[in-house]
Write a structure and sequence with these properties.
4-stranded mixed beta sheet, Glutaredoxin, Thioredoxin-like_sf, cytoplasm, single chain, alpha+beta, redox-active center, 4 strands
């Protein structure tokens, strides 16, 4: 869990993903459309990926990926991110991390 928390707090927007996950891809595209470039950790390509997956579940993720952290805080998986976005709460959280146009 230490590695997950360290990685999650190193950058403003962090996404734990699997390279073959379509829901992870959807979250990546959403962030891209919102002008945010998250730091992405593909846990299926990390030698400690299984441990990271278990740590994400212990932190409260319903599914281990995608797991989104903003400002070092766990936002959640696809359902939480999309619900937050549809409710108008995601953009204010991402504002400090959006690219300047």
């Amino acid at each position: 869990m230490d590695k997950v928390m360290r990685l999650a707090s190193e950058k403003g927007v962090v996404l734990f993903s699997k390279s073959s996950c379509c829901l992870c891809y959807a979250v990546k595209i959403l962030f891209q459309e919102l002008g945010v470039t998250p730091t992405i950790h593909e846990i299926d390509q990390d030698p400690e990926g299984r441990e990271m997956e278990r740590a994400l579940m212990r932190l409260g993720c319903n599914a281990p990926v995608p797991a989104v952290f903003i400002g070092g805080e766990l936002v959640g998986s696809t359902n939480e991110v999309m619900s937050l976005h549809l409710g108008g709460g995601l953009i204010p959280l991402l504002k400090p991390y959006q690219a300047l146009c």
